[in-house]
Amino acid sequence: MRGKKKLDKLRQRSIISSATKGRKTLLTLIRALLATPAILFERLRREMDGHPMTFVFHYGGNFKNNGGGSLIYEPDNTKLLMGVEEDTLDVFYVNNYYKELKCDKATGCLWKVPGMSLELGLRKLEFDTDMLEMVRDCRRNNNIINLYFEHGVSKPHLVDVISEEDYDVVLPKSTSHPNKS
Length: 181
Hints:
Elements: H1 2-48, E1 53-59, E2 62-65, E3 71-74, E4 77-84, H2 91-95, E5 108-112, H3 118-121, E6 122-124, H4 128-140, E7 144-150
Parallel strand pairs: 1-7
Antiparallel strand pairs: 1-4, 2-3, 5-6, 5-7
InterPro entries: PB1-like_dom_pln
Protein name: PB1-like domain-containing protein
Domain PB1-like: 52-151
């Protein structure tokens, strides 16, 4: 009987000990989970910081389907903008860069997700959240990103030309001409 009591006490200690270990493990797990957002934010910050970026602007063209069903940008004029620093970058600067390229008008700016086709990889650049996503893609692509300007269809300016043959012109009748004496 005495041995049985001793064995029961040992089992109780073992259960308490494992419960304590479980509590410590649980606390460690909770601490790790609470620290995870901070760790992820720091990792993201380090990923975003770094070397200056290079933007490859495609301008002066329009998106078209080629004969094989793929989307192309034609004519494809390109201009590199090197040394872009993330901390001075904003959506308005990028969206208005078409003016630096001497383009009349741009209806939108898009970037292409690296490794994807034009059909699937184009993303509109409108808001700061779009800019952050584009910079993240740029950093993952060795600091290079392709941007495309959409140029809407230009509307022609119509000028009405009226000739005397088109309309009857009625001149006022005068009884005397000022130059005649």
